[in-house]
Design brief:
Elements: H1 4-55, H2 61-79, H3 84-104, H4 109-118, E1 125-136, E2 162-170, E3 174-184, H5 187-254, H6 258-261, H7 264-296, E4 304-307, H8 308-322, E5 328-334, E6 339-342, H9 344-360, E7 367-375, E8 378-385, H10 392-395, H11 419-429, E9 433-439, E10 443-451
Parallel strand pairs: 5-7
Antiparallel strand pairs: 1-3, 2-3, 4-6, 7-8, 8-10, 9-10
Helix pairs in contact: 1-4, 1-5, 2-3, 5-7, 8-9, 9-11
The structure holds adenosine-5'-diphosphate (ADP).
Adenosine-5'-diphosphate binds next to helix 9 and helix 11.
């Protein structure tokens, strides 16, 4: 995982980016909304003024007339009200009735709609009226003080409403001032259309940032894994090289000891031990050299026509002689004389690596099976063991260079993490492949598929 030190600034940067995108989009939305409101307000006002100018009417004349008829009735009711509560209820009732009258009996909406239509605007809108002041007048024209409480009527306070104008009206029995608002039905969709480009750009840059971040994170994890593997490899390699070297050094010293010099048999066995360890050392160095060369150039093998069964029997014999007495080893062949285009040396190394791993990664009484069958155009070579098995997660990586299960812990089994990488490269070079099927604690089966001729 990302170290906390790295994670906090990265997460912070992403959050800042997201926040700035949100701010940009809301700012653009607000600006557009202001322009939208202004545009509709100006056009609607113009429409109302034109109507008033042409008809000489206020646009609310019918409503004013109705209110003038209602006012004396309410005035009487308020005067006869039994208490304060009652008069408040009556005045609220009056305000809602007046509001309703102003909305239904106005004559400005058709003119506004017509103007909207003419200019290509969306003409659908709702109206809202907020009464600011309503005073009832007695027969003598004296205001009925404190009887009404219009503030409670303020409902058109949402952002959706566009303020059109404040209107003043007067009749024989009342005086009124009210604000008129319009609410354009398609306002949101129109605004959304307007900021679509900004929104898309914003989303796109967010998406791009997420993709870049994910890719960087992945590559960081890969780099980190590789660097951990390399460190591990260097430790393992030092350990692997040191063991034969110290054996050679001790054996060399012992050759100078009097007890050994005088004993020909001991000299011979020590010389043989030195020879064996030198070969081992040489093999290790060659393995590392081979892999370094493969890095730089195409992996080259010298192929020739070979009988698969006799090659496999040779490998199996070598393995049987080398593995411990505790090991039970079975072979079965159903190859019907199949031949392959193989490099015998690499092929030998590949199969014997699998057999050695099967032995290396078993705990008690290893039972190993080598089974080869000819199927269709290929030969399947399976190496099965009852060893420690490999978890599903580790199975993804075991064919990678330097990978060893349980990296970081002290390894009980020696190795460089190159064996299976080597096997998979050789299999590929022969036009084949290798797969693993394994369960932790239950054993593993490695199956090589090699094309036959
Ligand atoms: P090495 O044996 O040098 O560690 P390999 O490339 O041969 O490297 O194997 C990689 C890892 O795969 C080993 O470290 C081991 O954990 C796991 N592995 C390989 N073969 C087996 C097997 N037969 N059973 C269980 N684990 C295995």
């Amino acid at each position: 995982m990302f170290k906390q030190k790295t994670f906090i600034p990265v997460a912070g940067a992403i959050l800042i980016f997201i926040a700035s995108q949100i701010i940009i989009v809301t700012q653009v939305w607000r600006q557009r909304e202001e322009v939208f409101n202004l545009k509709y307000r100006l056009v609607a006002r113009e429409a109302v003024q034109e109507m008033m100018y042409k008809s000489g009417q206020s646009g609310f004349d019918r409503a004013y007339y109705i209110i003038d008829n209602l006012a004396p009735v309410y005035l009487l009711n308020i005067e006869n009200a039994s208490g304060n509560e009652d008069s408040v209820r009556i005045s609220q009732d009056l305000i809602s009735v007046v509001r309703e009258v102003l909305l239904t009996d106005q004559e400005i909406v058709p003119s506004i709609k017509e103007r909207f239509k003419r200019l290509g605007f969306k003409e659908d809108f709702d109206s809202e009226v907020v009464i600011k002041n309503l005073v009832l007048l007695t027969d003598e024209g004296i205001p009925q003080a404190d009887a009404l409480n219009p503030e409670e009527n303020i409902t058109a306070s949402s952002d959706r409403h566009i303020f059109l104008n404040t209107f003043y009206g007067e009749g024989n029995f009342y005086r009124i001032s009210f604000d008129y608002y319009i609410d354009i039905a398609s306002k949101e969709s129109q605004l959304l259309k307007g900021i679509m480009m900004t929104l898309l750009l914003s989303l796109f840059s967010l998406l791009a940032l997420t993709v870049i971040f994910a890719a960087t994170y992945r590559s960081y994890l890969n780099q980190k894994r590789l660097s951990d593997l390399k460190t591990d490899f260097i430790n393992n390699m030092t350990h692997e090289l040191k063991t034969p070297l110290s054996t050679i050094s001790v054996a060399g010293k012992s050759l100078l000891m009097d007890a050994v010099i005088s004993d020909r048999e001991k000299i011979e066995s020590t010389a043989m031990l030195i020879g064996k360890q030198t070969v081992h050392l040489n093999n290790l160095i060659n393995l590392i050299l081979d892999i370094t060369i493969w890095e730089r150039e195409q992996f080259r093998i010298k192929q020739k026509r070979c009988n698969l069964e006799s090659l496999l029997r040779e490998v199996a014999d070598g393995f049987r002689n080398g593995c411990g007495t505790d090991c039970t080893f079975h072979e079965s062949y159903d190859l019907r004389g199949a031949e392959g285009n193989l490099d015998p040396v690499y092929f030998h190394t590949m199969v014997s690596n699998l057999l050695q791993n099967a032995y290396k990664y078993s705990t008690e009484n290893p039972t190993i099976e080598l089974r080869a069958t000819a199927e269709g155009d290929s030969v399947l070579i399976a190496v099965k063991d009852n060893g420690i098995g490999i978890s599903r997660e580790d199975q993804k990586y075991i064919f990678d260079k330097f990978y060893r299960v349980g990296t970081g812990d002290l390894h009980t089994t020696k190795g460089l993490g190159l064996g299976l990488y080597y096997v998979s490269r050789i299999a590929e070079a022969h036009g084949g492949n290798i797969i693993v099927s394994s369960k932790k604690g239950k054993g593993s089966v490695f199956t090589l598929e090699i094309p036959k001729i």
